[in-house]
Design goal:
With 387 residues, the chain is α+β, with helices and mostly antiparallel strands. It has helices spanning 12-38, 44-57, 59-62, 66-88, 206-223, 229-263, 274-277, 284-290, 292-305, 348-364, and strands at residues 2-9, 106-109, 114-116, 122-125, 132-137, 150-158, 161-168, 182-187, 191-195, 200-202, 266-270, 309-313, 337-339, 345-347. The radius of gyration is 25 Å and the shape is globular.
Length: 387
């Protein structure tokens, strides 16, 4: 499954209609959640029936395509299922009780309610809202894919415009010459990551570099009169700046992960619980700015696409254990150099990367003496999931 994104080019009146579509999808999702709260043992089929009832009860809700209403109900049931599974697993802390949405930014269609032009350069919405035809602006080409392969079309409102995402049911595979190399990766804050060969990638710190401009734009928002047009313009400029930072972070994560996967046949990394790590208020902003989770997700995805082995190992004591003799050397986070009684002296992150590689090879059932030989390519990549 791959996702292709295009920007929608239309008239201001069409954009206002899209906003109505998004608000309607939010209404359907919230009504489905309310039905679950008021009733017991609710299934997805029950929510589908409620979507049909809502279409008859509210005329404007009936304008939204029937499959789009079902997709909105699915959003509610997915949140419910996640909450129930967390309760059954006795997950510590908050279980994620489903909440009502008030600022939804997207509406999702399935296989009906929309149509592509013959040249596949325009998208037309055919449901009751009659939003009309939008031009698709983007570098990708839909001609390579059959219309039957498009399973979902999601319309998203962002600070710089409206976008359409096409979810296409195809498997992406790439052929590449094996390198016979294996590395372990230790992500950090001083350096974005350090691998087992001692090489480092600098941390770009996109948010830190844009923090001054973000503060200035935030001040402009607070100085404007509430509910005024000038305040809306200031909010939009602030949103565009935040959007640029997030896109910079995503672009860096994709390019770095692709480079790592293409250059190595075996990649081991720490399975970090970033959600728990950001609870440290002194490091939360820096950890979020680094975007470790996004980078590791792309590592898994490219590992599947290129047929490489990407293994997640437990993060316990990778920085404390000596990569040479295995003895445990306790040190605080401020100590950046690993010094062991066996005579090993190396950077803390380099030592951790070596331990991660050793753990990953052991977990994959590969002997360390096969590293650098074609024998490492005999292992199949781990299963991955990407949206």
């Amino acid at each position: 499954m791959i996702v292709l994104e295009f920007k929608l080019k239309g008239k201001p009146q069409q954009y206002r209609i899209v906003d109505e579509m998004i608000r309607t999808a939010q209404f359907v999702r919230n009504k489905a959640l309310r039905y679950w709260i008021d009733n017991s043992r609710v299934k997805l089929s029950d929510l589908y029936k409620q979507c049909a009832i809502m279409a008859k009860e509210f005329e404007w809700a009936g304008k939204l395509n029937s499959m789009a209403r079902q997709a909105s109900a699915e959003r509610a049931i997915f949140a419910i299922q996640r909450f129930v599974s967390n309760c059954k697993a006795k997950k510590p802390g908050k279980k994620g009780y489903p909440q009502f949405k008030k600022n939804t930014h997207s509406v999702e269609y399935k296989t009906s309610g929309w149509a592509l032009s013959v040249d596949k350069r325009c998208l037309t919405f055919t449901d009751g809202f009659a939003a009309g035809t939008f031009r698709l602006l983007g570098s990708r080409d839909l001609h390579f894919y059959s219309p039957n392969a498009i399973k979902r079309v999601r319309v998203i409102r962002r600070a710089d415009g409206y976008y359409a995402q096409f979810c296409i049911n195809v498997e992406r595979t790439e052929e590449i010459v094996p390198t016979g190399k294996a590395i372990g990766i230790d992500v950090g804050l001083n350096h974005f990551y350090t691998n087992s060969t001692g090489e480092t990638v600098p941390n770009p710190r996109h948010l830190r570099k844009s923090e001054k401009a973000l503060k200035r734009l935030q001040k402009r928002v607070s100085r404007k009169k509430k509910a005024s047009s000038n305040r809306k313009k200031a909010i939009n400029k602030l949103g565009r700046k935040h959007l640029k930072v997030s896109r910079q972070r995503k672009d860096f994560a994709i390019k770095t992960a692709l480079c790592v996967v293409k250059s190595n046949d075996f990649v081991a990394y720490e399975n970090l619980q970033v959600r728990n790590m950001v609870k440290n208020h002194k490091l939360a902003k820096s950890i979020s700015d680094a975007g470790w989770s996004q980078f590791l997700q792309w590592l898994q995805y490219f590992g599947k696409v290129y047929g490489k082995t990407v293994v997640a190992v437990a993060p316990g004591y990778t920085s404390q254990d000596c990569s040479s003799c295995g003895n445990r050397v306790q040190k605080s986070l401020s100590v950046r150099t690993h010094i062991c009684l066996c005579g090993a002296v190396l950077d803390r992150d380099h030592n951790a990367a070596l331990n991660i590689l050793t753990k990953g090879l052991r977990q994959a059932g590969i002997s360390s003496n096969t590293v650098g030989h074609t024998g490492i390519n005999a292992w199949k990549p781990t299963s991955t999931h990407w949206w």
